[in-house]
Specification:
Layout: E1 9-18, E2 20-21, E3 24-30, E4 39-40, E5 43-47, H1 52-64, E6 67-78, E7 83-93, E8 103-110, H2 111-116, H3 122-133, E9 138-140, E10 151-153
Parallel strand pairs: 1-7
Antiparallel strand pairs: 1-5, 2-3, 3-4, 3-8, 6-7, 9-10
Length: 158
């Protein structure tokens, strides 16, 4: 089981991202829990005081060695106790490598191959399809007195 700082992690908020580059998606083979042995999109829990976009960047770097930028919001899952947000993860730089903790390997896999691979779970496949289709909500700037709030919508509001 990976080591985690219990004092700063918000266990009710998590994010992941789909990074596609040159027709290949970045996937990590999970080492624990229900996803053990499965190839999933990288992500993790939000730290208190961190935005979901910052979490995505941090988790990608920690787990894969790759620097990404949060793009469109392509998926949300809500329940009475938590939420999970999935972004397009735009490749910035870095060579993919395993963290040898939460994952045992990190691979760039052809998107069509990933969509047909039995070790890629259904949720990951759905998010890959959304990213390939270009679906999602774009970040829209707006004025707010509160810090750290972002608005995502399907179209530019004038």
């Amino acid at each position: 089981m990976p080591t985690v700082d219990l004092g700063k992690t918000n266990w009710s908020q998590s994010v992941a991202g789909v990074c596609i580059r040159d027709g290949k998606v970045l996937l990590a083979r999970h080492t624990y829990g229900a996803g053990k042995g499965m190839l999933i999109i990288p992500g993790g829990y939000v730290d208190f005081g961190e935005t979901p976009e910052e979490t995505l960047v941090r988790e990608y770097k920690e787990e894969t060695g790759v620097t990404v930028k949060a793009g469109k919001l392509i998926g949300m899952r809500f329940s009475a106790k938590d939420w999970y947000a999935v972004f397009e993860a735009e490749y910035v730089e870095g060579d993919a490598r395993s963290d040898n903790d939460e994952n045992s390997e990190v691979v760039w896999m052809d998107t069509d191959e990933a969509l047909n691979d039995e070790t890629v779970p259904d949720l990951t496949k759905k998010m890959i399809r959304c990213a390939v289709a270009g679906d999602g909500f774009k970040l829209i700037p707006y004025e707010s007195k509160a810090q750290g709030r972002n608005l995502y919508t399907t179209e530019q509001i004038v």
